[in-house]
Amino acid sequence: MNLTAVASIYRYEMARFFRTVAQSIVSPVLSTSLYFVVFGTAIGSRIESVEGHSYGAFIVPGLIMLSVMTQATSNASFGIYFPKFIGTIYELLSAPVNFLEITLGYVGAAATKALFIGVIILITAFFFVDISIAHPFWMLGFLILTCVSFSLLGFIIGIWAGNFEQLQLIPLLIITPLVFLGGSFYSITMLPPVWQTITMFNPVVYLISGFRWAFLDTADVPVGLSLLAIALFTGACLTAIWWIFRTGWRIRQ
Amino acid sequence: MSSIVSVRNLRKAYGTGFEALKSVNIEIEEGEILALLGPNGAGKTTLISTICGITVPTSGTVTVGGHDIGTEFRAARSLIGLVPQEINLEPFETVINSVRFSRGLFGKPRNDAYLDKILKQLSLFDKKNSKIMTLSGGMKRRVLIAKALSHEPRVLFLDEPTAGVDVELRKDMWAVVADLKAAGVTIILTTHYIEEAEAIADRVGVISKGEILLIQDKADLMTQMGKKQLVVELQSAVTDVPAQLKSYGLEIGEDGMSLIYTYDTKGERTGITTLLNDLQKAGLQMADMKTQQSSLEDIFVGLVKETA
């Protein structure tokens, strides 16, 4: 295992994050604050409670997840797409590193950035609403797993993408709708029965539900099922990445 | 000398059916400078990319330092430094960070003293903390070399290191290559500047349409394939070659003031002495004479034309 290489990739990627720190941190914090103002304070004041919690407190886990998922995906996809775009990928391909090391470096950095942003949003949330965290350990666990699994997904998208348009396409067309319809801003039980059934096919529902359980101790689906879903998702992404590097798909001619 | 890079029956075909390399065999000796000459699209870059692990071979084997590039890729790639043809650099990163990254990628522990030494050697030291986007084209190319050298490779591939580079920088580059050779690094460079191969290579390989046409010691190549010409300048112009000199295959130079005799340096007898005697017998008065040898360029153009 070439751990020095993993650390080098990780540091190099994190340097990019800190180089663009304003863009990396300020924009998610600003947009989340706006969500709190609009949904939590303005609209939320008209909603009495959701499953026994104030609406403001109810949407905190969903908002964090929304940002973490989109940030993890876009960071990881950009991280690997950019070297492909500017041609510096040659260095990775000719270095004594295997797929696991490349993935650990890039996905590790993308997940760290997403985690960083998630924590900052959580801190921001404390300024807007009263929240308590019922299961802090599980909260952190769900957060980290989500950062990692969506970074893996982003990494695959970055390898697949042939241009900047495609790089934006999947997050825009698939991830954003799934996250919005995954119960970020509402409880699944508020939907009509037919939609409740359809929603169960949305993997994001399980992640948000598990994460919300860690905060509020109430969930749409059993926590075990949430964990299973995230494990399956992570496993599927890892398998895809292993296959990509084994066959050289979109990377090695 | 033992070979450090060994390429056997290497073939690369693309999905489109295009065969970029057709059963290439090369043994590269430790410590030498090998220049690969070839026209555009000859397969030079494909050959280098395959040895370095960027392109997957269709068939054949490549070993570097005795390690197979497929099964022992870590050991093989650790020995190799690659300077690509295109200037592929992250524009927003600083020179030193970019070079540090390369070293780390090859699993080498941080060693700033060594990296400073390389940067000084490449006249990049005062640009160490500059962003790459602020550097000139020539400096960027040197950053690529610094990156390739950052992990102390034993074999260095330079893919057209002086393409589009001005004369002065080209000379600098040659000096860097000479220093590296002195330090024991094996260097393989591709070029289509023949004078470059002539100036710095120990051996020259000619590649065209995915095949190695020839690979030979530069000096041997020049003497073996080189034709020499004797130019005899005359005191008065001639319009025809005199009948008794027909057997020499002489050409008449511009304005008839000279006769040109082409001879093979390989031959036991050059025929010069008898020619000079016969010239005198034919009553021609010599004003001066000189010899000239064909350059690598003439040899190269001749070879590539033959296969076209």
CATH class of the largest domain in chain B, please? Alpha Beta
SSE order of chain B, one letter for each helix or strand: EEEHEEHEHHHEHEHEEHEEEHEH
Which stretches of chain B are poorly predicted, pLDDT < 50 over at least 5 residues?
Answer: none
CATH-level-4 superfamily name of the largest domain in chain B: P-loop containing nucleotide triphosphate hydrolases
What profile does the largest beta sheet of chain B have?
6 strands, mixed
* Strand element count of chain B: 14
Q: How many structural domains does the protein architecture of chain A include? A: 1
User: How much helix is in the residues of chain B?
Assistant: 25-40%
What's the alpha carbon Rg of chain B, rounded to whole Å? 25 Å
SS-based structural class of chain A? mainly alpha
Number of helices of chain B: 10
Cα shape of chain B: elongated
* SSE string of chain A, helices as H and strands as E: HHHHHHHHHH
Structural class by helix and strand composition of chain B: alpha/beta
For the CA atoms, what is the radius of gyration of chain A? 19 Å
Q: What global shape of chain A is seen? A: globular
How would you explain this protein's 3D organization?
The complex is a heterodimer of chains A (253) and B (308). Chain A is mainly alpha-helical and 253 residues long. Chain A has helices at residues 3-19, 21-43, 55-86, 89-93, 99-126, 136-160, 164-180, 193-199, 203-216, 223-247. Chain A has one domain (3-247). In chain A, 76% of the residues lie in helices and 0% in strands. By secondary structure, chain B is α/β, with parallel strands linked by helices. Chain B has 2 domains: 3-223, Rossmann fold (3-Layer(aba) Sandwich); 227-294, Alpha-Beta Plaits, CATH 3.30.70. In chain B, the strands form 3 sheets. Chain B has a 6-stranded mixed beta sheet with strand order 6-7-8-3-9-10, sandwiched between helices. A 4-stranded antiparallel beta sheet of chain B has the order 2-1-4-5. In chain B, a hairpin with a 2-residue loop joins strand 4 and strand 5 (67-68).
